[in-house]
């Protein structure tokens, strides 16, 4: 788009009608966006009414399953919801090693993209394709408008303090996929814009003349090049190769892109640019205010909060095994909900790095002398997480208790309410339990009215040491579940490495201190005694693992045999996700919520299993089968 096109009456039609049409199409685009957001808001209101009605019905002792719809309108809404879920949940997974990042979005997101592309194609072609002398220029100019019209949406979707997400009840990370696809769509429409103008000039041999006479053309090429770089560098393999570099260069690219677009577009289209700048500035302002509010205390009460300090928060690190670091952050004076995450900035480990981590607890940690404390569980990969684990390991080896000053931003995330389902199935892989375990904790310790009667918790991992932190807390929750009256079933699957849990001759996990079946992972009575004193379960040493493995017959070490006790079911094979979900779904009389946190493979399997089971049981289609809701948290940053 350049400044001279207006001399042709808005794109070369010889009158001003076409320019009005371009601006009208731009307004229609935002009418459609507003209608889409409004539809989400209406759905939120209806769902809020449904959930409040459930909780009110639960107070009546005569209602056995308050999660069942009890009016004609709610039955119709439940049927529509079930149909949308069955259509939107399935996902094709690409299992090829090194190419799993090519896995397409689930069907629901694909439908949203198709609708979006239909709107964009309509805007790019309506009334613009007919043969005349201005054919090439008209299509190029129209696509320039289509491209710049999407600019504010691109920056709105990139915001962490997201206005659209706030209205729709969707967290920023769940809109980020759409942010990337809007950028790719702009790349395509921008390419059409540039190609048609260049082709028109090439036909007349005026390319050099046009570039010389209109300097804004080179800024357009520069803007498109930056957008191409942003799309390429945002691909999953490159984004994950060096996340810190990606974030830094992405911010610089976003600012430079706005500057180049400002130099390229005409004045009558610059309102799109100002809207994008306003979205960027609003996001940065809100995040800065949030950062200051949560990390600066003018008058810290050190008597009330041990570890209280004026700037930042005091944190302690603990290395667990070879790959896990537990970060305990003290004196955090804000509330959070199970399933939310925050951004952690630790200057001594990464001077200019803030990384997102799920809050691994739902409430204030027990046995702490501080006002509020939270824990983060960080798995070692590379970069920041590797330096963090090395730092904690070095401190522990020297016997020092390192206390670091950290800064947090958040919490972010809009997880649903967990107390309005009759059955909850929690599925996680390795450190994905940082997401599912707080949900379990929040339900068991919820003091208000809850519809939950049963919880099934599945935790899978390749190496047992990765989950010992979670197993320790799971046993605490098992005891708590007895007091709440909620049925809790725990299944732990360790699929690789040496046998992580000891199995006696009867195939049952044994507690050496009492001889009873308790589901612990120790073989030495000394460690069991230490556990009773400290309340903590240290990781088994390599010698313990070898002794345990030697005590188990060879045919039992790597087979489908499992150990069970009254609380926990252990196995050494990959669980059947479909069968695991089917059991509690068929046993319940009300709605079930399935929550999964893991990699693409586990997420795709769970999506397909839930959709298939819902279709098989004809949920809310006259069979009496109740709904199955799915909530996915994927490793997708």
From TrEMBL:
<dbReference type="GO" id="GO:0005886">
    <property type="term" value="C:plasma membrane"/>
</dbReference>
<keyword id="KW-1133">Transmembrane helix</keyword>
<keyword id="KW-0472">Membrane</keyword>
<dbReference type="GO" id="GO:0006879">
    <property type="term" value="P:intracellular iron ion homeostasis"/>
</dbReference>
<dbReference type="InterPro" id="IPR051410">
    <property type="entry name" value="Ferric/Cupric_Reductase"/>
</dbReference>
<feature type="domain" description="FAD-binding FR-type">
    <location>
        <begin position="307"/>
        <end position="418"/>
    </location>
</feature>
<feature type="transmembrane region" description="Helical">
    <location>
        <begin position="29"/>
        <end position="49"/>
    </location>
</feature>
<feature type="transmembrane region" description="Helical">
    <location>
        <begin position="181"/>
        <end position="199"/>
    </location>
</feature>
<feature type="transmembrane region" description="Helical">
    <location>
        <begin position="219"/>
        <end position="238"/>
    </location>
</feature>
<dbReference type="InterPro" id="IPR017938">
    <property type="entry name" value="Riboflavin_synthase-like_b-brl"/>
</dbReference>
<feature type="transmembrane region" description="Helical">
    <location>
        <begin position="144"/>
        <end position="169"/>
    </location>
</feature>
<feature type="transmembrane region" description="Helical">
    <location>
        <begin position="245"/>
        <end position="265"/>
    </location>
</feature>
<dbReference type="InterPro" id="IPR013112">
    <property type="entry name" value="FAD-bd_8"/>
</dbReference>
<keyword id="KW-1003">Cell membrane</keyword>
<keyword id="KW-0812">Transmembrane</keyword>
<keyword id="KW-0813">Transport</keyword>
<keyword id="KW-0249">Electron transport</keyword>
<feature type="transmembrane region" description="Helical">
    <location>
        <begin position="107"/>
        <end position="124"/>
    </location>
</feature>
<keyword id="KW-0560">Oxidoreductase</keyword>
<comment type="similarity">
    <text>Belongs to the ferric reductase (FRE) family.</text>
</comment>
<feature type="region of interest" description="Disordered">
    <location>
        <begin position="530"/>
        <end position="563"/>
    </location>
</feature>
<keyword id="KW-0406">Ion transport</keyword>
<protein>
    <recommendedName>
        <fullName>ferric-chelate reductase (NADPH)</fullName>
        <ecNumber>1.16.1.9</ecNumber>
    </recommendedName>
</protein>
<dbReference type="InterPro" id="IPR017927">
    <property type="entry name" value="FAD-bd_FR_type"/>
</dbReference>
<dbReference type="InterPro" id="IPR039261">
    <property type="entry name" value="FNR_nucleotide-bd"/>
</dbReference>
<dbReference type="GO" id="GO:0052851">
    <property type="term" value="F:ferric-chelate reductase (NADPH) activity"/>
</dbReference>
<dbReference type="Pfam" id="PF08030">
    <property type="entry name" value="NAD_binding_6"/>
</dbReference>
<dbReference type="InterPro" id="IPR013121">
    <property type="entry name" value="Fe_red_NAD-bd_6"/>
</dbReference>
<dbReference type="GO" id="GO:0006826">
    <property type="term" value="P:iron ion transport"/>
</dbReference>
<keyword id="KW-0325">Glycoprotein</keyword>
<dbReference type="InterPro" id="IPR013130">
    <property type="entry name" value="Fe3_Rdtase_TM_dom"/>
</dbReference>
<dbReference type="GO" id="GO:0015677">
    <property type="term" value="P:copper ion import"/>
</dbReference>
<dbReference type="Pfam" id="PF08022">
    <property type="entry name" value="FAD_binding_8"/>
</dbReference>
<dbReference type="Pfam" id="PF01794">
    <property type="entry name" value="Ferric_reduct"/>
</dbReference>
